[in-house]
Amino acid sequence: MRPETDDKGAVNGFRASVAHVSEGELLQRIFPLLQTSQSALLGPGDDAAVVAAPDGRVVVTVDTQVQNRDFRLRWPNGYETTGTDVGWKAAAQNLSDINAMGAEATSMVVSLTLPGKTPVAWVEDLARGLNTAIKDLDAVECSVAGGDLSGGSEIVVTVTVLGNLAGRNPVLRSAAQPDDVIALAGTGGRAAAGFGLLESGHRMESLDEEQMALVKNQLRPLPPLWAGPAAAKAGAHAMIDLSDGLVRDAGRVATASGVVVDLDPAAVEHLAEPLQSTAELLGANAEDWVLGGGEDHGLLVTFRADTRLPEGFVAIGSIYAGEAGVTMNGDPLKITGWDHFAH
Amino acid sequence: MRPETDDKGAVNGFRASVAHVSEGELLQRIFPLLQTSQSALLGPGDDAAVVAAPDGRVVVTVDTQVQNRDFRLRWPNGYETTGTDVGWKAAAQNLSDINAMGAEATSMVVSLTLPGKTPVAWVEDLARGLNTAIKDLDAVECSVAGGDLSGGSEIVVTVTVLGNLAGRNPVLRSAAQPDDVIALAGTGGRAAAGFGLLESGHRMESLDEEQMALVKNQLRPLPPLWAGPAAAKAGAHAMIDLSDGLVRDAGRVATASGVVVDLDPAAVEHLAEPLQSTAELLGANAEDWVLGGGEDHGLLVTFRADTRLPEGFVAIGSIYAGEAGVTMNGDPLKITGWDHFAH
After folding, report:
1. A42 touches chain B (CB under 8 A)
2. Which fold has domain A17-164?
3. Which residues of B touch A18 (CB under 8 A)?
4. Which of A68, A69, A150 sits opposite B69 (nearest CB)?
5. What is the pLDDT of residues B305-318, one digit of tens each?
């Protein structure tokens, strides 16, 4: 699959690709599309940016999306991924990692590796996607503080996000305690169902409203950025964002904390139920999507059992002492989900 | 050119590539190779890292190296780039950007995009290269705080570095003043000469000691990390690191500050002189290397003319009022140097 999206690149009366403009010209097109925030003390344009770190500490995470690995420019069902989709997802998945520490994002730096034929308009859309995700996900202190442009043979988007703990302790994966409740904020399995639709022969125009929403969960995930700081304030023991699958990520908490994470079958069933009709359409299993799908970027948190869960959290299981692992109603679950080199 | 370096990947009795190991296993091989620093309050292994920002602000920069664009795995002269070379350079060029703000690096996050056939041993060498550069360049507060691994069809290495201003103002490109002196710390033109040798038919075993040193300036540049903070303390007006070429980067200072940067031909000649014999060998022009070459990551700084230059700086020209541009002895110079999409 090659980045043949030139039909979207009509700029100044011709279809400009990045090979037609200098790096400086491309930056001059991108910068005006990015809002600034109070945290950005010095924005793009110098050797480095300067960002406020009022807490005296800074949280930092990095994540990369690679064409044909993390997204397709054209999906089997015919959908053509927009720059806005890619920018949104790149921003959202990193904002989610900051959220999972109980912090709030303050800035983002972005490295784009682009084939020369990438339309300038597609790159402008990517900048819009970064900006829109920041705005719509309500990361009010965050803005794009800087970046880097490179040529390459496939699109690679690397986003680094910085965050502010505002005096709180970071919430780690490793502090889940026996008898904790484990709770989820945000959705689960929906992005995996959306992926199934995009990979299917069912074209977008044939999908109903609910199925379109599932596709959107895959293309433009909605990490609950309010949930990380709220959970930290409520005394969360352990926290992780669901990026690689519920069982895999719960397994990381189990391993790091040396506990058993036991999922409640009723909770899994509750998450799977709205996905049943789509699973039937595709001959797939809705429960597998819930257990193995991760790209919703929901937030998985353990609390003391007597904690009043912050609004928007739903209990989905409990923590037990025992050999580290994930079970459902006591039965061991196989760790499934995304491994970057396994396919 | 394909990443056919499997002959370096003998691990556990067979030549393991990253496709043979899980992401978690690869991380477990990399982590022990990385030293920690006092700044790393929480290192790799959670959703995000936590780094000290004692100044209440954090400097941040990102830069990417792409296989066959920024480095070759095998050069025309037969040299095979090691993982250590790539790791060193990825670290060094980002540490240089922090230096150019007058700051000191506190941490680094690293995103690696790797073809499945990349030898595990090559990736381990890359981690060693990051670590060795930090150590040998004396970035004593810095360590690798986190990272990300992805699959892809070519090697892409993105490094984000954070830095501490320690109470100083960041030194920008935009504050050069007429009558300033402009001075260089570190080397100029040597990395370009080394690139010329690597791209030539002259095999490594035929090179003399000085030529080997030029190749090393290309593969493992030596940004003068002492110079940025020293210049800031000495009252530097404007500062930039030489990443894209002396004339191009001086032009950025000129444009941002609205001044003329006039280079002293004697200073350029002084930098070119030791490169003459290599230029003759390759039928190249040593002065072009000095004016157009940037990857030495020297530091270009303007000071008030009566400033006593910090040790290690050499005056190479003066700043004048006038239409922004770069001249030598008053004659306009064409902006040449690296543009990521122009080739």
Report:
1. yes
2. 60s Ribosomal Protein L30; Chain: A; (3.30.1330)
3. 341
4. A150
5. 999 999 999 999 99
pLDDT digits over B193-228, tens only?
Answer: 999 999 999 999 999 999 999 999 999 999 999 999
Can you spell out the DSSP letters for B22-40?
-HHHHHHHHGGGS---TTE
Q: Please give the DSSP secondary-structure letter assigned to residue A130.
A: H
Is A142 strand, coil or helix?
A: coil
Q: B84 with B92: CB under 8 angstroms?
A: no
Q: Domain B19-164: give its CATH code.
A: 3.30.1330.10
- Counting one residue from A and one from B, how many pairs have CB atoms under 8 Å apart? 240
- Predicted ipTM? 0.91
Chain A residues within an 8 Å CB radius of B107: 60
Domain ranges of chain A: 17-164, 181-332
Q: Which two tokens stand for residue B11?
A: 């691990």
**A59–B45: do the CB atoms touch at under 8 Å?**
no
The rounded distance, in Å, linking the Cα atoms of B199 and A209 is 57
CATH superfamily of B181-332: PurM-like C-terminal domain (3.90.650.10)
Chain B residues inside the 8 Å CB shell of A53? 53, 55-58
User: B207 CA to chain A: closest CA distance, Å?
Assistant: 31
pLDDT in tens, B56-88: 999 999 999 999 999 999 999 999 999 999 999
